[in-house]
């Protein structure tokens, strides 16, 4: 899977505590669609905002946007007034190569970090002018850091977190402008083993319920990692959890790969029993990879 990733900034009008929206990445339609979680059916009429990555490429050309993998909601630029966006609305892009899986923006410093899984690296993009970090045309690639099977990358509690093979990693982002560097903080944190399964780290999300919890998925399951205690709690001992999020109400929402490793539904469950599906949304020929809460609050 090779693709480009872009950060999009979306304006919000979300008020009540439980009526949240989810941004869903569908590889089949090459879209990111934002749906109200509670819409009875996730059909065309329910779409709140959408991004379509469908370039006009000939059969002989390489399509960098072939497999959309992730979406994060960050305040980067203003798309106010648009209900749908396409490649013409992309304000910054990069092609890190080696099968990129996720992208994060470092607040205030203007840097981006992309994770690539094969064989595995983080690519750092930094502002060439430290006094003008908001001008996206001045943000350029600076370093690559080897990280075996890097998948999830997330800014949380003042650190950059990343999942890879067997480990969760924590980095400090130091310096300014061209001098920005990632510095590993401590050793890799061993992911929790599920007997009979590998531990290839996958998705990484912040719990919107508990600021001390990172939601981590790997080959064999989904976990809540407490950044204060350093303890992993197993939420689901099942394979192919492509993404997992938790809303401030406590509700979990996740995508599990079914047909061809991809998901046709976003499943929901109660906080007290993450194993039991209480509700789901989607459609039969969807190819969901990740579903993220539509909320830019991540610092
Ligand atoms: C951003 O940087 C580019 C390249 O240096 C420059 O041409 C452009 O005017 C800048 N934009 C703003 C809004 O400052």
Automatic annotation (TrEMBL):
Q: Does the keyword Signal apply?
A: yes
UniProt keywords (A-Z) are:
Signal
Q: Show which residues constitute the signal peptide.
A: 1-19
- Superkingdom, natural source: Eukaryota
Protein name per UniProt:
Uncharacterized protein
Species: Penicillium cosmopolitanum
